[in-house]
User: What shape does this take?
Amino acid sequence: MPPDRSSGKGRDSARAGDSREIYIEILPATGGFVKVCAIDAQTGTEVSIVGSSKAPNAELERIAINKLRYVMERDAKAKKDTPSSGEDDGGGILI
Assistant: This one.
């Protein structure tokens, strides 16, 4: 299904030196809240936030994109810090 530009899906996010396609989806929730999902098109990484339905969509999108960047940077750092000795790290006991 093609991105729906009217709901904020499929917007490109650009930061100095960082131009990635990020899909934004805003879903109504009960009790005056909305759920905002941000998905990185390249990696498939997805995050979501819940905010007031009275908050401006641009603010909710900004928060979701910032959270997505945080999660992607955290995961990249964790992957970098993981030793790549080639040993199986299955958690078992070596005898």
In short: The radius of gyration is 18 Å.
